[in-house]
Each structure stands twice: as structure tokens, then as C-alpha cells.
Amino acid sequence: MDIGYLQAILLGALQGLTEFFPVSSSGHLVLAQNIMGTVSDGVLLEVLLHVGTAAVVIWFYKSEVLELIRPLFDAERNHRRAVLVVGLIPTIVAGVFFKSYFERAYDSPLIVLIALACTGFALLASRRAKDRGRPIGFQIALLIGIAQAIAILPGVSRSGATIITALFLGVHRKEAAEFSFLLSVPAILGAGILTFRDLSPGGLDPRFLFPALVGTLVAVVIGTLALRMLVRMVIRGRFDRWGWYCLVIAFGGMALFLLR
Q: pTM for the full model?
């Protein structure tokens, strides 16, 4: 099924809302496309939407991003860069060696729903996490990175998995959210580069490109609002409430799936 403007707008709005809220944007996009009909170049569309919301993160944390890309000869900045690199290693390894396994999951709504239920239970459990003000060093960054790698699986929330892991490791709530989203940017941009590299020599069909760009713009606008809301929720300790939403969608979807 080719993508139309209305479909692109709906998927863009869904991406903008679910990329930052801990409910798995990939899982929601898979389920939405399953309901509306599979979109041709669906993986490419998803990458474009994710690149759009990555731009939101870069703008939202522009001060932190500028600090990271300033002159290299600064011990504190170099330490932060090194910590981010360590956090990225598991995602790189998973993307290179297990890409085909993760891609198969995108064809199975049932796997997405099971993963979404696991996300829901993890979110509810996060209310027991204690804020001990621990800084993010190499060991903590590696564990958060492993959580991000697991979240390549659709239905596992990337923001949920990384922030929950940081909270259980005693990281301050604001720092947990900041590190989670900064860690997402190179992972998403890297996936985008790999996807565009694999495009056919003919490039993008304008009939796909223009609606996809409109959807991406919608994702940017809605994602900007959603990220602001999510950061406030994490700081105020209301992050776990999204667990109930994940469980309702997961078990409701399973019931519909089994009744087909």
C-alpha cells in the first residue's frame, strides 16, 4: 500500500507522541500499519520519522550537544563523550550482528504486544527505584546502553528501558532523562544513514517522499510538546503511570489478535 498524506500525518502524529512517552513508538507504528494496511517502504518511513524526533532531541538539549562538540582538549567534556560512546556500544553490536532477528519482529504484531506488556510491567516496577544521585560512569552507561539495544525490539520502549535502567541504578531523574535522550540521537542517526545507504539507485519516489516529509514535520511539532511533558513527568516521579497504558494496549491487542 502506497502512503498518502492523511496516513503520513497520522503516523507522524503517532511517532511524535510515542517516541518520548515510554510506550514504544516502533511498536505503535507496527500496530498502526497493521491496522491501516502495510505501507510500502514502511521501514524507511519509520526511519524518517525517527530522524525527525531525533532533531527534536538535538534542539531540546542544544546546550548539552554544543558542549559535547566543542574543542576536544577538555577533560570533563572528553569524559562525557567517552561515557556516551560506551553507552552506544551495545546498540552498535546489536544492530550489526542481530539486525535480521530484530527486523523479523516487525512482521509480528503478537511479538510487539508481548514486548509492550513487558514494558508496562517494567514501568510499574520503576516506582520502587530510589534516587541515590549516582553519576553516570562507564559501568552505568554500558548497562543503559544494553537496555537501549534491547529496545530495538518493537514494543520495548527505548526511553522507558533506558530511563528505568538508570533509575534502578540510582541515577538522578533529570540526569537519567537527559542521558537517555542524548544517547538516542547517534543511534537513530546511524540507523538513518544505514537505511539511506541501502536505497536503490533510483532513490526515493516523490510519491513516497513528499507525504513522508509531511509526516516527519508533524512528528517534529508534536514530539517537541511531548518531550517537554515527558521530562517534567520523569522529574516529578510520574513516569511509571504509563505502565497502565502499555498493559491496556498490550492485553487489549492480544484479545483482538486471538479473536481474529
A: 0.82
